Amino acid sequence: MTRVKKGVNALKTRRNVLKMVKGYRFGRSSKERQAYEAISHAGAYAFAHRRDKKGDLRKLWIVRINAALDTMGISYSKFAGNLKKAGVEINRKLLSQLAHENPKAFEAIVAKAK
Predict the structure, then answer these.
(1) What's the CA gap between 4 and 93, in Å, rounded?
(2) Which of 1, 39, 48, 99 would give a disulfide with 68, using CB separation of 3.0 to 4.6 Å?
(3) Given 3-state DSSP classes, what are the helix, strand and coil percentages for the chain, each rounded to the nearest 5?
(4) In a domain, 43, yes or no
(5) CB 98: neighbour CB atoms within 10 A?
(6) Are 35 and 21 in contact, with CB atoms under 8 Å apart?
(7) Is 1 contained in some domain?
(8) CA–CA distance from 97 to each of 6, 16, 87, 92 (Å)?
(9) Which string of DSSP letters, residue by residue, matches the chain?
(10) Residue 50 covered by a domain
């Protein structure tokens, strides 16, 4: 069997790993073994938090809608129930944008829900 020297490939792998952890603190940015560990954890967190981000944005939209509704004297839960009964199918993202950027249009939607 022929002998395989992996110097070139090992250097390329090491270089790529250290590129990925550029900006990390302490040994994680300069030591190969710690860098591998940091990459694997970072990937796991990124995967999980991509899903968490969707829930975080939904919470933000609800808070914004609720803040706009406070001035109109109606709670978010009553507003959401009334919207459903009225048959208005506008998602929370759009409602929060309307409340923020176009209060008059949002007031019209609230009036329809009341």
Answers:
(1) 57
(2) 99
(3) 80, 0, 20
(4) yes
(5) 21
(6) yes
(7) no
(8) 56, 42, 20, 9
(9) ------HHHHHHHHHHHHHHTTT--GGGGT-HHHHHHHHHHHHHHHHHHHHHHHHHHHHHHHHHHHHHHHTTT--HHHHHHHHHHHT----HHHHHHHHHH-HHHHHHHHHHH-
(10) yes
**88's tokens:** 């208005």
How does pLDDT run across 61-91, given as a tens digit for each residue?
Answer: 999 999 999 999 999 999 999 999 999 999 9
Judge contact between 21 and 29, C-beta under 8 A: yes
Task: Determine the Cα–Cα distance for residues 97 and 64; give it in Å rounded to an integer.
Answer: 9
Look up residue 23 and give its two tokens: 């900006």
CATH number, domain containing residue 99: 1.10.1900.20
Q: Is the pLDDT of residue 114 over 90?
A: no
Does a structural domain hold residue 93? yes
The dihedral through the CA atoms of 40, 44, 50, 53 has a sign that is: negative
Number of folded domains that form the chain? 1
